[in-house]
Every structure is written in structure tokens, then in C-alpha cells.
Structure to design on (325 residues):
């Protein structure tokens, strides 16, 4: 039976985990480049989470969008100084995904550098000096304007695949992402596998060493998300707790799902965080997702599946002047 959250853990004999590549090779994706969408009144493709100072045109950042306590400040870049890897994307089409399951098409517009700032106890960066200070706090991203949006996106744009000339936008399929009911057989099996991992046991031991007496994540939910479907998909199990002086830990594991049954564990980088799976792609519609876009608080990352497990690439970082406690 599943272990109720908050109850003391019984002694568990930890076996050596089976961590191996996907049993079936991942689908060959349609040619394209994943990109996050920085949502604002005028949305931007995030092409790189880093930018070099020599790409920027001198001048103070300008406020380009604000909504309650969220501000977007931006500086212009010199296209002649930016590598052709990025300038070659201008004018290409992209398949876009929103947070309501919608899908649409847009064109990559002109380049700039953008920083999104989240405030909750500081003043709005109204002056050039304040915007300059805010710019220095974080990591500005190289972005491109999202132009000529067409199609069925009604929600907040979250991710895109910028495609090559040989690929049509409708070749980029979206894979379903769903949160599993905690009482479902698949979620129970995933939770059981999760608490049987050596990483979970090590975290529990550290928690006990610091005086903890129950499960290290307490009553906080262990989330199970399914990418794809129960016939052929991937289950992510994750939880995170603490900070602000309390015990702090987070853990993510991933497992193959075949015909409704939890299968082998898939290798995940030890520092990877999954708080919110916002989109996934299945390029050829065979049910094997190749790309996952995740969000961790105000930061994002791309997970690319391969025969060796997952590669995680940082995406857009948002500077948050908020108190996390």
C-alpha cells in the first residue's frame, strides 16, 4: 500500500537502481530549434540565456512592458555583432504552444536583449539609473520579437520550436502533459519507485540527521506528471521543500511508461528541477516525446531526451526581487 504523507517511513531495503536508456529509441525530431517564450504584451522568443556585452548597443535599458509588479526592460543589440547562428533565425517560422494546449504559428522578428524583473517590495524601476541597476542584477537573455502570430493560441504563450526551411510548422506536434491523480495505479507505482531510490534514502538520512522524524518532504505533495500517454510516455516524479532556515531539498526522477505500466528509470541530471512541465513536443506523432519545457519558479529549462537519458539546457532566467520566505 502507498505510504501516507507525513507518516514515519518504514525500513526500506534499497536495491541498485536500474537506470538505463529508453528501451525504444526516441523519435527523430523534425528539424528545429527549441525556444522559450517570454510572455509580455509583445512576446519574445528566448534564443539564448546569455548575451555578451559587445553585442549590445550603448544606452540605458528601456521599460517595454509592465503588469502589476512585473516589468520587462530591454536593450537593443547590434545585429552585426551577434553571431550568425542567431541572426540566421530572423524571418523563420516557428510553431508556438500556449498554456491551454493551443498551437499556432509565428515568424521570428528583430533581435534585442531583454530582462524580466519581478518585484514585490521594491519600487518600480522608473528612472534610467534604476533600470541600469536592475539590469546588473541578473542575466539578460538574447531574444527576438514574435511577429505575425496566426492560429489557435488563446492562452499565454510558453514555448516554441523555430523550424528550418525544409520543415512545415504542422510537422511539430505537441505531446500531452498531464498531472496524474495521486490515487491512480500509475501514480502509486511511481511514488513507490521514487521513495525506493538511493537519492531519496540519502535525503531522508540527512533529514533524520538534522532531527527530522517523518518523510523529509512532510505533507508536501509528491507530484507525478505524465508526458505522452499511458500507452507510451514518460512519468516525472518530483518534490521540493524548505529553505529560509528549514531543511531544504528537492528531487526529481523519471520513468518509462508502457501500456499503463511503470517501466525502467531514465537518467536525470542530479541538479535538475521540475516544478512545472509547461509543454512537450512529439515531432512525428509516434507517442515518444523528444522535448520538454519546464519551469522552476521564475526560471526555465529545456529537457531533451536521448538514448542516454536527458540533457537539460538552461532557458530564460527572471530576476526576482522578492522575499522567498
Amino acid at each position: 500500500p502507498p505510504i501516507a504523507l507525513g507518516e514515519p517511513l518504514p525500513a526500506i531495503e534499497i536495491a541498485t537502481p536500474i537506470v538505463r536508456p529508453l528501451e525504444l529509441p526516441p523519435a527523430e525530431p523534425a528539424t528545429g530549434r527549441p525556444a522559450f517564450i517570454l510572455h509580455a504584451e509583445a512576446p519574445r522568443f528566448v534564443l539564448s540565456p546569455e548575451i555578451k556585452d559587445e553585442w549590445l548597443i550603448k544606452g540605458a535599458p528601456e521599460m517595454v512592458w509592465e503588469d502589476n509588479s512585473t516589468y520587462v526592460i530591454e536593450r537593443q543589440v547590434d545585429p552585426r555583432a551577434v553571431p550568425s547562428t542567431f541572426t540566421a533565425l530572423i524571418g523563420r517560422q516557428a510553431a508556438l504552444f500556449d498554456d491551454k494546449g493551443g498551437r499556432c504559428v509565428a515568424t521570428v522578428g528583430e533581435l534585442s536583449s531583454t530582462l524580466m524583473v519581478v518585484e514585490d517590495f521594491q519600487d518600480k524601476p522608473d528612472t534610467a539609473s534604476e533600470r541600469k541597476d536592475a539590469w546588473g542584477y541578473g542575466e539578460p537573455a538574447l531574444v527576438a520579437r514574435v511577429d505575425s502570430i496566426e492560429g489557435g493560441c488563446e492562452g499565454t504563450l510558453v514555448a516554441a520550436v523555430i523550424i528550418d526551411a525544409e520543415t512545415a510548422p504542422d510537422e511539430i506536434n505537441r505531446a500531452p502533459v498531464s498531472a496524474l491523480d495521486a490515487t491512480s495505479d500509475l501514480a502509486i507505482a511511481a511514488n513507490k519507485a521514487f521513495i525506493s531510490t538511493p537519492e531519496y534514502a540519502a535525503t531522508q538520512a540527512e533529514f533524520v540527521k538534522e532531527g527530522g522524524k517523518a518523510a523529509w518532504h512532510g505533507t508536501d505533495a509528491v507530484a507525478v506528471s505524465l508526458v505522452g500517454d499511458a500507452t507510451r510516455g514518460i512519468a516525472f516524479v518530483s518534490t521540493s521543500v524548505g529553505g529560509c532556515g528549514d531543511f531544504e531539498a528537492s528531487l526529481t526522477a523519471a520513468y518509462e511508461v508502457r501500456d499503463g505500466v511503470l517501466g525502467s528509470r531514465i537518467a536525470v541530471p542530479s541538479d535538475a528541477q521540475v516544478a512545472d512541465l509547461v509543454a512537450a513536443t512529439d515531432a512525428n506523432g509516434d507517442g515518444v516525446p523528444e522535448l520538454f519545457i519546464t519551469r522552476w519558479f521564475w526560471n526555465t529549462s529545456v529537457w531533451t531526451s536521448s538514448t542516454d537519458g536527458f540533457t537539460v539546457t538552461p532557458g530564460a532566467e527572471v530576476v526576482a526581487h522578492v522575499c522567498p520566505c
